[in-house]
Recover the amino acids of this structure.
């Protein structure tokens, strides 16, 4: 069984994001980029499936600029077997990404596709669900536990009220939540080995997908700033202020 | 123009998040229908018909909708989509699960978690954990939208008198099945709609210390939340998490206890009206957004707060 893992190159989660002065987007020049944290969890889970003998091959896919190859290399260094890079210079939205991943899935025939539940740049939380829809597969989103059986899987999902468990027929799409696992760091020998692993490159056209965005971004601005307030002396002072100044209790 | 709103409900009660989604639909304008998909959901449909501004309630009462499986509900939404310019749901875990699936089937690029309606095609939504706000215009014929509930004031749950119309179920997809759920039960208000929220972070040191916070919550009628660090450390269950990837809350009062204020936590609570931070580290970033900061050891300050509130008659 093959596992497909899409990985997205995003601004590193530790970087303080700055909006561009011309309001066209956020500053990406000279900013540290990394793999989307949820995708690291997906890669880790895929590798664990291979290590447990449930999967034979883990394929990492990234869509975007040439530097996405670095993101794929990170996945390969963690333990993925090979990479696919769909080279595209402009913005690409979840629907177009899902269409490209569908085309790749139809070619590769994975039994499971493990997608991060959301990317920390656009915070859309759509790609996995859209991909499952387009493939006509079942979906388990926001999962914190996974057991793969014979022709089906059982997944525990993190939902607003707590946890929910579903079973899905294979093939299926999963999206990962934070508590599924703790991703490993790539060791130096594995980073060296990853350099020799193959990455296929293709274009959206090769996959028969028009990547043109459906949404036009008119402007991107900073949110209203929140001013720091005052320090209170002690608990009695705090209660007094909440009661008589803020009037919230 | 007409909007179909996918209602969310629980234990045969319409959830407040639905009323926020209706408010967003109202800002878009046009006729509003509310879809109630479930099994044995007649009582919810009755409630839905009373929601202010709704002209029609569509009820799909069929076994395949009993547990809200995305595969089945998305197919239903797609089957009903014709004639609607907008399809809207609250950005809850249910809405997030179902809507992108329906959106892809309609060949529409969804607009996630809108926080403002500019016009029928143009919306504002937070990106980068709310560190930037993007205004986007959709060129799709149908707009599929999820709504950040804290950004829209709920419409009245009563006062409407919509017509109730039954729609047929579309059958089970056979792709997934529901096994069960472990839902947290609590007498306290729901985190996303509580007027007061008190949250604990890594500074709590252990789940065993959370009763300290719960005591204060009960005096104030507050909900209890947590930072990602506290959830990851296993102090409390996942459904307590407030932040970019957890729940977004905007209560009148948010009390952050032993929370440093990581970007991803601030993303989930910085729209609260009044923020209080209790932390022994004076340099903690949480103080930069707090209206009232108390630099103190929480193990001393929280029991004191509990006592002070008790003395002043709260919770009695």
């Amino acid at each position: 069984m093959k596992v497909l893992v899409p990985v997205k190159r995003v601004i590193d989660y530790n970087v303080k994001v700055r909006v561009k002065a011309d309001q066209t987007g956020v500053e990406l020049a000279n900013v540290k980029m990394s793999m989307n944290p949820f995708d690291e969890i997906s890669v880790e889970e895929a590798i664990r499936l291979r290590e447990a003998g449930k999967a034979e091959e883990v394929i990492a896919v990234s869509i975007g600029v040439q530097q996405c190859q670095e993101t794929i290399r990170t996945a390969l260094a963690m333990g993925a077997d090979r990479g696919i890079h769909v080279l595209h210079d402009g913005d690409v939205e979840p629907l177009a990404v899902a269409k490209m991943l569908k085309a790749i899935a139809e070619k590769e025939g994975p039994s499971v596709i493990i997608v991060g539940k959301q990317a920390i740049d656009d915070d859309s939380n759509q790609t996995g669900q859209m991909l499952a829809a387009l493939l006509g597969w079942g979906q388990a989103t926001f999962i914190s536990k996974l057991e793969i059986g014979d022709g089906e899987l059982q997944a525990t999902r993190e939902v607003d009220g707590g946890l929910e468990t579903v079973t899905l027929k294979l093939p299926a799409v999963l999206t990962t939540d934070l508590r599924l696992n703790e991703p490993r760091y790539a060791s130096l020998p594995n980073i060296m080995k990853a350099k020799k692993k193959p990455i296929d490159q293709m274009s959206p056209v090769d996959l028969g997908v028009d990547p043109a965005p459906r949404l036009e971004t008119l402007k991107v601005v900073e949110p209203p700033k929140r001013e720091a307030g005052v320090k209170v002396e002690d608990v009695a002072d705090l209660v007094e202020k909440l009661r008589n100044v803020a009037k919230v209790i | 123009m007409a909007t179909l709103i996918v209602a969310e409900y629980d234990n045969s009660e319409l959830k407040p998040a639905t009323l926020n989604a209706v408010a967003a639909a109202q800002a878009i304008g046009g006729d509003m229908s509310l879809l109630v998909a479930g099994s044995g959901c007649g009582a919810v449909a009755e409630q839905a018909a009373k929601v202010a501004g709704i002209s029609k309630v569509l009820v799909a009462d069929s076994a395949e909708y009993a547990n809200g499986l995305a595969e089945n509900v998305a197919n239903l939404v797609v089957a009903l989509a014709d004639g609607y310019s907008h399809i809207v749901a609250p950005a809850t875990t249910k809405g997030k699960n179902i809507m992108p699936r329906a959106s892809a089937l309609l060949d529409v690029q969804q607009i996630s978690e809108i926080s403002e309606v500019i016009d029928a095609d143009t919306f504002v939504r937070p990106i980068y954990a709310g560190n930037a706000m993007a205004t986007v215009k959709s060129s799709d014929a149908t707009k599929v939208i999820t709504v950040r509930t804290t950004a829209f004031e709920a419409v009245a749950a009563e006062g409407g008198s919509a017509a109730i119309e039954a729609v047929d179920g579309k059958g089970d997809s056979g792709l997934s099945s529901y096994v069960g759920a472990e839902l947290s039960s609590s007498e306290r208000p729901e985190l996303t709609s509580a007027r007061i929220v008190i949250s604990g972070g890594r500074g709590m040191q252990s789940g065993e210390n959370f009763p300290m916070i719960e005591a204060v919550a009960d005096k104030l009628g507050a909900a209890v939340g947590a930072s990602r660090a506290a959830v990851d450390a296993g102090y409390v269950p996942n459904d307590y998490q407030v932040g970019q990837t957890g729940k977004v809350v905007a209560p009148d009062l948010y009390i952050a206890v032993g929370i440093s204020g990581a970007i991803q936590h601030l993303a989930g609570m910085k729209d609260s009206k009044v923020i209080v931070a209790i932390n022994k580290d004076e340099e903690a970033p949480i103080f930069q957004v707090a209206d009232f900061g108390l630099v103190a050891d929480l193990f001393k300050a929280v029991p004191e707060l509990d006592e002070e509130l008790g003395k002043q008659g709260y919770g009695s």
